[in-house]
Amino acid sequence: MLLGMKRDAANAYLRLREEVDERAAELMRLHAGHLVCRAGCTACCVNLTVLPVEFEAIRRSLACASGDRIPFDTLAACGFLTASGLCSIYAHRPIICRTHGLPIAFAGEDGEGCSVSFCQRNFTDADEDELDFGPENTLDVDVMNEHLSRLNLAYLAESGVNPSADGRIELRKLTEQRE
Ligand code: SF4
C-alpha cells in the first residue's frame, strides 16, 4: 500500500506500470530474435528525473520493501547501478526503465510523422522487412507519457500542489528520503 499518496493517483500509476510491463513483455517476445538485452547490460541506464507522482510511488514502495539505505554510486551512469551492472531498485524502477532497448514510437517535433527508436545494440542483423515498425510492434511512448502526465496532474491536485510548480525530481533523491 502506498501510504500517504492519494488513492486514485497511486492506484492508477501502478496500473499504468503494469500495462507497460505487459506491453514490454509482449514486445520482448515479438522481437526476441533481435534483442541482446540481458541482465548486466547497462547501455540504456543514465541518471533520471521523474515526475512527482512517480517519485512518490517509488519512494513509498521502497520504504515498504526495506528499511535499508539504498547505495548510490556517483560515478556510475545511473547511481542505482551496482558494481555488477544490476539495478538496485529493479522491482521499483521508473516506467521509462521498463522500456529500455525496445522499439519505441514517438511523434516528430512538429507533431507530423512518427519516429522509432531502439537501443543500437539491438536489431543489428535485422533485414528491411524486420525493421518495418508500426503500432503492432512498437510501444507508443507519447501515449504512455500523456497518461503519466495526466496522473501527475491528478496527484498534484490531490496533494494541493499548484501544477505550475510541478517540476521533475532527480531519482537520486530517493536516497535522501527513506521512511
Ligand atoms: S533506475 Fe535502474 S534501470 Fe533505471 S536507469 Fe537506473 S539502474 Fe538503469
Secondary-structure topology with pairs:
Elements: H1 7-30, E1 49-50, H2 52-65, E2 104-107, E3 114-117, E4 139-140, H3 141-159, E5 169-170
Parallel strand pairs: 2-4
Antiparallel strand pairs: 1-5, 2-3
The structure holds iron/sulfur cluster.
pLDDT below 50 for ≥5 consecutive residues: which ranges?
Answer: none
Q: Main sheet, how many strands, which sense, barrel? A: 3 strands, mixed
Along the chain, the helix and strand elements come as HEHEEEHE
- Share of β-strand residues: 5-15%
**What would the principal axes of the Cα set say about the shape?**
globular
The count of DSSP E runs of length 2 or more, i.e. the number of strands, is 5
DSSP helix count?
3
Distance between the termini: 14 Å
Overall mean pLDDT stands at: 90
- What is bound: which ligands? iron/sulfur cluster
Which structural class do the helices and strands define? mainly alpha
Instruction: Write out the strand line-up for the largest beta sheet, numbering strands in chain order.
Output: 3-2-4
Number of domains: 1
- Cα-atom Rg, whole angstroms? 17 Å
Q: How much helix is in the residues? A: 25-40%
